[in-house]
Amino acid sequence: MSDEELRPRVGRLPRIPFAFVPTPLEECPKLTAVLGGPRILMKRDDLTGFAFGGNKVRALEFRMADVKAKGCDAFVLVNIGQSNHARLHSAACVRLGIHMAIVKPSPADEEVTGNLLLDRILGVEIVEAHGRNTEEVLDETLERLRAEGRKPYASTRERFSRLAGTIAYTEASLELRDQLQASGVTERDRVHIFLVGGTSSAGLALGGKLLGTGWRVHAVSVGGSAESVRNMELDLANDVAGRLELPVRLEPDDFDVHDQYVGGRYAATPPTTLEAIKLAARTDAIFMDPVYTGKAFSGLVGEVRAGNVGKDDVCVFVHTGGTPIIFAYHDVLKNL
Fold first, then answer.
1. What is the pLDDT of residues 224-240, one digit of tens each?
2. Among the four given CATH numbers 3.40.50.1100, 3.40.50.2020, 3.30.450.40, 3.40.50.150, the one describing domain 3-54+160-333
3. DSSP letter string over 252-310?
4. Where are the domains of the chain?
5. pTM of the entire structure?
C-alpha cells in the first residue's frame, strides 16, 4: 500500500494534534561498537514533546478526539500511580478542559514522585482504590460523575481507546520507513525493530507488512507471557486493519515476541534490565526506565548477544519514553 492510500484512511479519523513529530532517528555509534554490531539506531519517541513525551502521545491524539466526538466531558481510567498513560492523559485533559479522574489501585501512602507527582501538580482527581475491587470503584466513580451532570468516558472500557495506539503506530510506520531510507538503510538490509510489546509494536508490525518494508518487529513483553502478548497484538492489529479497510492482516509469524526478559513479574528489575539501563546511559547517554524501556532494551541486547540478530543487520530501538518513572525507582538505580 502506498502513502497516498494509507494517509487518507487514517485521516478519516477525528484527531487532535499533540505530538512533536517526526521524532529523531538517532545513530548510536558507541552502543554499536560495544555490542560488536549490528548497526543500532534509536527512534526517539521519548521526544514527542507533550508532558514529558512518550509513545502514548501519538495515541492520545486519536483517543482524545474520540472523547470529544462522543460529547464526553470527563475521562476516567484505572491505573497505578506511576502510570505514563495516566500522566499523559491527565495533561491532555487539563489542556482540553476535560475533568480527569484516575482510579488508582496502588497504596494511598505511596511516595509522591515521578508520574504521580506530575499528576498531583496537574491537579487531577485521584480516587484511591487500594484494597478494593477496581472495577467496583470505577463503577462508583462513573455513577458519581454522571450524578454531577458529567458525561464520562471510561477509557478501559472503550474499544476504540485500545485501538488508538495501534492506529497511531501503523501511521508512524511511514515516518520510520522514510527515516531509515534517509539513513542509508536499503532493501538489502535486514532490519530488526525492538520495543515494548503492546499497541505500538502491533502498529509497527501491521504498518511494516502493509508498506512492504521487510522489517522484523520484536515485541518485548514487560509483564505477560509471549502467547498473551502475541494474541493481544493480533487482535488489535487486525481490528485496526478492518476498520481502516487495509488490504493485509497480521499473522502470528509476522513478528516476534520475547517474554524471557520480564523477570519475576511486571515492574521487576532483573539484572538484565539494570545492565541495559547502565549500558545505554554510559555509551550514548540515553536514559531508560526499569519498567518499560530498560526491559525492552535488554531484549535487544540479549538477542544480539545470543546471535539471533546478525552483526551486519540493522537494529532500531523504539524509545517509548517513561522518563518520570526513573525518579520513582531511585532506590533501585542509585547504585548502578
1. 999 999 999 999 999 99
2. 3.40.50.1100
3. GGGSEEE-TTS-SSTT---HHHHHHHHHHHHHH-----TTTHHHHHHHHHHHHHTTSS-
4. 3-54+160-333, 73-150
5. 0.97
